[in-house]
Structures are given as C-alpha cells and as structure tokens.
Amino acid sequence: MEIKYEIRTLENAGGEGKSRKFVALHTQSPMTEGQMAEYMEANSTLKKGDIKAVFTEFRQLAISQLQQTGHVYLPGIGWLSIQAGLKAKAQQDGHKITGKDITMQAIQLKTEKHFYETVKKGIRFAKSDYSTQSVEYTEDTLWPKIADYIEKNQFITSAIMQKNFGLSRYMVNKWLSLFVEEGKLEKKGIKNNRVYFMHNS
C-alpha cells in the first residue's frame, strides 16, 4: 500500500520572507473498532465479540493507568504519557501554586524503536494525481471548464474534478451541489459513485 502525498509551499516562513516546501499526506480513514474486530477474527481463532470486549477492557485499563500513574504501556507499540502544564493564573506573581493550578494538556505517544522501524520499513509514498489544496474559482470561471469537459466526455465525476481542476474534495462537493441546485447538472448513480451530466442532455 502507498500513501499519497503532495508538496506544498509555505510562503514567508518564519517571517523571513523565504518560502519553504513541506509534505502534505493524503491519509485515508482508519478502520473502525468493528472493522478491526472483523479483521482480527478473520486472521485468528478469536471471535469478534471477544475481541471487542478486550478493546473495551483495555481502554478502561488505559484510562485508569493514565489517571493513576501518568503513563500506560501499549504492548509492542509504545507508551502513552500525560503532558501537563500550569493554568494562566498560576503564572501571576505571588500566586501559591497547588494541584488545582495544573491541567492536562495532551496525551503523548512514544513508540518503541522496533515498532517504529517496522512501520518505516514497510511504508511507501507516491505522488498524488490531485491536490487537496483548492484552486480558487468563481462560478463564472469554473462552469465553462465543467461544461467543456462534459461536452467532450459526456459526464464528469468528483474524482475527475479533483484531478483536472485542482480542487479539494470539500470544494468539489460544494460546487457540484451548487450546480445541481441551479439545474445546470443532473446527478445519477449511488452514493460514493455519482456521475454528473448536463441537465436534460
């Protein structure tokens, strides 16, 4: 499996007037708890119900350990640790700091070296065919592009718009919804597999 990426540029990085390139990953939705249980059931002798019960018990154990000791071990993965800091009023001169002035700010994951190296060894990156950073259009500039594409190819999809017009998935959905509402486009197909035609074409 590959993780898609795109290279973006941060202008005036650090206020120094210089640009800096950075990697933006196109991560996918992770497995749900139910999907993980089904995967484990298919690859072991454990039953899905038992696996989900272990998830629940381990989650409660992790909460208890973090609340009592400040960290918890994830077997074969690493450690979750509490990060704490002071509330703003505790910084005032003369303020007597107590436990009530300390607040949890984050939970940090520190991975085991073997786990980290195993993930790193098997990961692959491939340049994305489209950008998640949208090109800015007005309705007057985008619609002619869509109409021209449909005239040549009969229909258009959200994936085609992302790839050909440099639009994010969010902006593609926004524009397609607008053009359907305005009666310019007609959508057909099922959810997650929509095809758009010129209305009454």
Describe this structure as you would to a colleague.
By secondary structure, this protein is an alpha+beta fold. It contains 6 helices and 8 strands, in the order ββααβββαβαααββ. The strands form 3 sheets. The protein has a 3-stranded mixed beta sheet with strand order 2-1-6, with no helix packed on it. A 3-stranded antiparallel beta sheet has the order 3-4-5. A hairpin with a 4-residue loop joins strand 1 (about 5-15) and strand 2 (about 20-25). It is extended and about 70 Å long. The mean pLDDT is about 90.
Keyword list:
201 residues; 6 helices; three-stranded antiparallel beta sheet; alpha+beta; single chain
Distance between the termini: 40 Å
Report the average pLDDT across residues.
89
H-E order: EEHHEEEHEHHHEE
Strand order of the largest sheet: 2-1-6
* Shape by Cα distribution: extended
Low-confidence segments, given as residue ranges, are none
What is the count of β-strands?
8
- Give the amount of beta strand, in percent: 25-35%
Strand count, sense and closure of the main sheet?
A: 3 strands, mixed
The percentage helix is: 25-40%
Report the radius of gyration as a whole number of Å.
Answer: 25 Å
Helix/strand-derived category reads alpha+beta
Count of DSSP-assigned helices: 6
Task: List the topology elements.
Elements: E1 3-13, E2 18-26, H1 33-42, H2 48-69, E3 71-74, E4 78-86, E5 102-111, H3 113-122, E6 125-127, H4 139-153, H5 158-165, H6 169-181, E7 185-190, E8 193-198
Parallel strand pairs: 1-6
Antiparallel strand pairs: 1-2, 3-4, 4-5, 7-8
